Amino acid sequence: MRAVAVSEFGATPEIMELPVPEPGPGQVQVRMRAAGLNPFDWKVADGVLGGKVRHRFPLVLGGDGAGEVAALGGGVTGFAVGDLVFGLFMRLRDGGGSYGEYAVADAVGLARIPDGVAVTDAAALPMAGTTALNLVAEAGVARGQTVLVVGATGGVGTFVVQLAAARGAHVIATARPDAADAVTALGAAETVDHSAGPVAAQVLARYPHGVDVLIDVASDHAGLVAVAPAVRWGGVVGASTWAVDPEALAARGIRGFNLDNRPTAADLGQVADEVAAGRLRVAIESVVPLEEAPAALARSRAGSARGKTVITI
Ligand SMILES: NC(=O)c1ccc[n+]([C@@H]2O[C@H](COP(=O)([O-])OP(=O)(O)OC[C@H]3O[C@@H](n4cnc5c(N)ncnc54)[C@H](OP(=O)(O)O)[C@@H]3O)[C@@H](O)[C@H]2O)c1
Question: InterPro entries in the record, alphabetically (predicted)?
Answer without folding.
Answer: ADH-like_N, Chloroplast_QOR, ER, GroES-like_sf, NAD(P)-bd_dom_sf
